[in-house]
Specification:
Layout: H1 2-8, E1 10-12, E2 19-21, E3 25-30, E4 36-38, E5 49-52, H2 55-63, H3 66-71, H4 81-102, E6 106-108, H5 110-119, E7 124-127, H6 133-136, E8 147-149, H7 154-161, E9 168-171, H8 175-191
Parallel strand pairs: 7-8
Antiparallel strand pairs: 1-2, 3-4, 3-5, 6-9, 7-9
Helix pairs in contact: 4-7, 4-8
Amino acid sequence: MKKDREAAAERKCVATGEIRSKAEMIRFVVGPDGGIVPDLAGKLPGRGIWVSATRDALALAVKKRAFARGAKQQVAVPDGLVDALEAGLARRLTDTLSLARKAGLAIAGYEKVRGLIQSGDATVLLQASDGSERGKSKLRLPEEEGASFDCLTAHEMGLSFGRDHVIHAALCAGGLTTRVVEEATRLSGLRGNIGATGPGKDDGIA
């Protein structure tokens, strides 16, 4: 219950002023050297500075010196902050997805995913951003049920399953599945809507 309350908690973005759930935001703190440090696990000590997990919000936070305002002191913003954040979030998502696979909550492959959806046990659908739209369009969760994401590449998804690449993956309900959704939500916000790069890609069977 405590975890559910924490996930539902809201914070105000220092850049845009929007109120969002913590799952859609990134927490920052000021490090010992006065530099801004992303707290992707939400556990670092210090005053939390919250920014919406989008490139626009992060760019605005830098432009408006919102980090310094939120910290109430002068701070240093490292170069390449957004790119480093994206890499960190992608790594957290692939690591969590790997843990979910080992726990028996995540499966990969077109036929396995289709079977999990048809059985009604799939609560999350992950499809590679660079997979073909034709292949991905054949797999859909029931409307208004579960969550679907396309924020990882086929190679990134493959890392979670010990393969070169994966186009389709699905998860059933579980604690790690909730964490996958949280990480995927933030990465999706940072990467925006990533679609197929064009025809001629994988047929969608992985």
